[in-house]
Amino acid sequence: MTRVEVEYCVPCGMLNRAQDVSEAILKQFGESIDEVALVTGDAGVFVVRADDEVVFDKTEDEYDVDAIVRAVKPHVGAAA
C-alpha cells in the first residue's frame, strides 16, 4: 500500500497547509493508502512524497491541494 509523507517547515508556520494536504489525501483515498505522515522540517521545505517519490515540491510547483491529490493518485493505483 501507498505511504504518503508531507514534509513541512515548522519555523515558516506551514503546519496548517500540511494538515490540509494530508486531510484531502485521506478523504480522497481513505483505506486505499497505508499512511499519511507529517514530517517536520525547516529552511522553507514543503515537499509531498508518495512511496518515496516527490510528487510536489514548493520550489518547483504552485501550491494547489487538488493538484497534489491528483499527483498522489497514480501511486495509489499502482499499489493496489
Automatic annotation (TrEMBL):
Coiled coil: none
InterPro entries documented for this protein: Selenoprotein_Rdx-typ, Thioredoxin-like_sf
Gene3D superfamilies in the record: Glutaredoxin
SUPFAM superfamilies for the chain: Thioredoxin-like
The keyword Transport is assigned to this record: no
Keywords for this protein: Redox-active center
Record-given protein name: Selenoprotein W-related protein
Species: Halorubrum xinjiangense
